[in-house]
Amino acid sequence: MVSFKQIRVSLPPGNERKFHGNILKGANRMETNQQRSVKSSPNPWKIAFISLALVLVIAVVWLFSKITMEQTAQTATDAQVTTQSKDQLSVGVSLSNTELAVIANEYMKSKESLTGYSVEITDLVALKGETVLLGLSVPFSLSGEPHATTDGNLQVKVTGISLGGLSLPEKEALSLLAQFLTLPEFVSLDADSETVLMNLAGMDLPKESAIRLLSIDKKTKEYSFEVSIPTENLIE
């Protein structure tokens, strides 16, 4: 077995301090080099964290700007003041087919005589419900293509009609509906021309207010209206 014993180094007088000083200097140099190597090598976790933070910031800024632009554009198209005089204010309003159907259905729900009717608006306008015919409750459906008239009303050219299980020509079925169907006063059904007319000027609106249909965009399915409101109504 090999045993190790302490080794003592004898230095000449005066060189002992110099020897210890050299050892300390060497140790300090090694420590400094280690620190430099640690500082010079990049930390991959730190780089990944900073990159992720930058991506999140850019995404949030982009999303915020997009939402702001869409809201501004929507506000500009939905309601625009077209003309204003001393006594009257005219406002342009654009509604999608879905929004217009919601308004029509809410209106019919508020009228007891129209309970059970429903409107669906796609490329066509469809009215569904039940009517009493010869003492019997008969389901019906009426659909047609919408048009804006020159005087600002909505006209629907009938393209399809169903009246219970009756097998009747469209004109005769339309004539029966015109006699027995309960409709608002501003809506008329003409069997000869096979049209349904919504006279918007005949609607019961507050204090001389009026509404006109300006146009229908078939591609975007948007209905553009002009609403006229007396300025005295705004003050009240």
Short description:
The chain is built from five helices and ten strands, in the order ααββαββββαββββα.
Please give a handful of descriptors for the protein shown:
six-stranded antiparallel β-sheet, 10 strands, globular, four-stranded antiparallel β-sheet, alpha+beta, 236 residues, 5 helices, single chain
> Could you state the order of secondary-structure elements as H and E?
HHEEHEEEEHEEEEH
What is the mean pLDDT?
Answer: 73
Largest sheet: 6 strands, antiparallel
Global outline: globular
Which regions contain 5 or more consecutive residues with pLDDT less than 50? 1-11, 63-79
Helix content: 25-40%
Number of strands: 10
Trace the largest sheet across and list its strands: 3-4-5-6-8-7
Q: Radius of gyration, rounded? A: 42 Å
Q: What is the structural class? A: alpha+beta
- Distance between the first and last residues' Cα: 113 Å
Task: Tally the helices.
Answer: 5
Strand content: 25-35%
